Write the structure tokens for this entry.
Amino acid sequence: MANNAIPNSSNLTPTMTLSDTDANTTDVPEFPSRNGPQRLVAAATKQPKRRQKVILEPGHSPLDWARLKSSGQDLRGVPQLGRFTLSEIKEHRTENDAWTALNGKVYNMTSYVKFHPGGVKDIMRIAGRDGTKLFMLTHSWVNFEFMLDECLVGFLVPE
Ligand code: HEM
């Protein structure tokens, strides 16, 4: 009789010990259990690569950008809006002079580059180019027209 006895179930189920603030401990089943379906599915599923969060320089938060944008400072660097071809935009492809075209509008994004939450390197990929495709692929939800309204220099025209 003793040999057929079902072993105490608490010997089969892995448990973990929780303690409350009064330092009382209590044994509860571990979840997800070690060989349980949750862990198997997680192990079999390809996890997306975690992107390193970009650290912006002090004074370059989104709020700081909003402040600069509404400060009245000239961020365009042109006397009036103009019409620009892609080869003209190509002349402005350095960090100190970075233009881009987005949805037919041309922006001088020089003053914004260091405020970009995705980092300088990423945003510089569209400097001197039509950035519409890459921008939309990365974050189509971002309202660039609002973010860069003070950086508008004109409109993209064919060569
Ligand atoms: C003038 C052009 C751009 C503007 C105005 C802009 C604006 C922004 C904004 C507002 C965010 C924060 C979005 C959020 O938190 O939901 C962001 C994030 C990001 N952007 Fe851009 N972006 C531009 C161009 C680009 C380009 C060309 C790339 C890639 C090649 C890029 C890559 C990223 C990435 C990876 C993030 C995520 C950063 C994170 O969450 O850590 N951006 N961008």
User: Anything to note?
Assistant: The pocket of protoporphyrin IX containing FE is lined by residues 53-54, 100, 109, 116-118, 122-123, 125-126, 131, 134-135, 138-139, 142, 144, 147-148 (CB under 6 Å). The first strand starts at residue 15 and ends at 19. The two ends are 94 Å apart (CA to CA).
